[in-house]
Amino acid sequence: MEEKDFQKRQREIVRRLSSVDLSDGTIDEAVVAGALEEFFNACDCPALPITWARDARHAHELAARRNTNSDANSAPRYSKFPSTSTFGDLFHRDRGGWDDALEEAKAAGHGGALELVKRLMYGHVVLPSVPWGLYWGRMTGERGSANSPQHSPAWQAAGDAFEYAARAAAECAWAHDYDENFTEIEYSNFPIEDFEETWFPFVDAYEAGLWLFWLTESEVIALSRPIVQLNGQQVHAERGPAVRWPSGEEEYFVLNGVHVPREIVEMPSSDLDPHLMLRERNAEVRREIVRKIGIERICSELNAECLDRRGDYELILLDLQDGFVRPFLKMKNPSIGVYHIEGVSPECRTVAEALAWRNQTDVPPSVLT
C-alpha cells in the first residue's frame, strides 16, 4: 500500500461499514469463504470448511460442542494468530489516533446496536454451571443488563468480523501517523503487510454477512449478522422482533433500546394491563410499559390521586387493587420527554420527601416549580 493511501483506505472502510444495512439479512457465502481464506493464508494454515449457524443459540451450541480453541496454546498450527479469543489483543496501538479511529469506525457501523445484541445473546444461553434462577432473573426482571461473556467459554472464544473490520480502519490511521512522524528508514520497516493481510479481509467478510465466528480443529462455525431494526441509533421495533436471524428461530423484542417481554411489543396498547407496570422490577422496562400504555390511562385505571406536584414531578397514590394504596413518584425523563413511575416509601407525602428517599439522602432536594 502506498503511503498516500492510508487515509483514503481508512475513509473507505468507514464508508463501507456505515453502508451496511442491518435490516438486510442477505449472506454472500462465497465472499465470506474467500475472505476467510485470505485470513487463513495470513495465519500460515490451510483454509477450513465453514458451517453456518441458524441463530445465536445454535452457534453457541455448535461452538461448545466442537471444542472451540479458546486457549492460545490449544492450536499451535495457527502460527500467527492461534485463536480468535487472543489475536484481537495482539494489535492495540497506543499512538497515532488508533483508538479514536477504531471508535469512529464502530460508531459508523452501528456498533452500539451490535453490542446490545451481544448482551441479549449472552443472557439467553443457560449454562449448566450457572443456577437456573440466576438466568431467569437476567431474562425477566433484569432484562437489558449486561451479562459477561466470561460465563461462557464459547462466547469468550468468538471472533468478531465487525470488530476486526473496524480495526482495519484503526490500523490505517495508525500507519498514517507513523508515516508523518517517522523517518524513511523507520517507515521502510513498517509491517504494513501484516495488518493488511490480517484485518482487511474482514471488511469484505462483514460486508458479505459474517458477524461472529469460531475456529475449531476441523471447521469454522459462522454466525451471520442478525437482522436488526433501528430507530435512529437505537434498536427498536413496535410490531415484532427487533432482532432475528434470517434462517433461525431466536428473536428479541426491543423498544427504544430496552429488551422487553414479547407481549409488550405484540399486544395492542389498549389490551395491555396497567398492572404490568407494577409487577415489573426493571425500571427501563417499566418506562416502556408506561410509554406504550400511556400515563393518563395508567393513572385513570389505577385511580391515581395526586398528593403533591413540583415541576415535572408528581407524588401520586395508586390503588393496587390488592388492599393497598401506595405512593409513586411520577417523573419526566427530560432527555426523551417520557413520563415514568417509580414506587417510593409509604411514608412519603411530598415530592421532596420522595426524591430524598429515592436518592438515599436525608436532605430534601430543591425542585424547580
Structure write-up:
Helix content is 41%, strand content 16%. By secondary structure, the protein is an alpha+beta fold. The protein has two domains: 224 residues, no CATH class; 90 residues, no CATH class. Strand 8 and strand 9 form a beta hairpin. Helix 1 runs parallel beside helix 4, helix 1 runs antiparallel to helix 8 and helix 4 runs antiparallel to helix 8.
Task: Supply the key terms.
single chain, 369 residues, alpha+beta, 2 domains, four-stranded mixed sheet
Outline of the structure:
The chain is of the alpha+beta class and 369 residues long. It is 41% helix and 16% strand. The chain has helices at 5-19, 29-42, 56-65, 98-108, 111-123, 132-139, 153-156, 161-181, 184-188, 192-207, 262-266, 275-279, 283-293, 295-301, 351-358; strands at 50-52, 159-160, 210-215, 220-224, 227-228, 230-231, 234-235, 243-244, 251-252, 254-255, 258-259, 305-310, 313-319, 325-333, 338-343.
The total beta strand count reads 15
Strand order of the largest sheet: 1-4-3-2
- Large-scale geometry: elongated
| SSE sequence, one letter per element | HHEHHHHHEHHHEEEEEEEEEHHHHEEEEH
Strand fraction band? Answer: 15-25%
Ends distance:
63 Å
What do the pLDDT scores average to? 79
Low-confidence stretches: 68-86, 126-147, 185-189
List the domain count as a whole number: 2
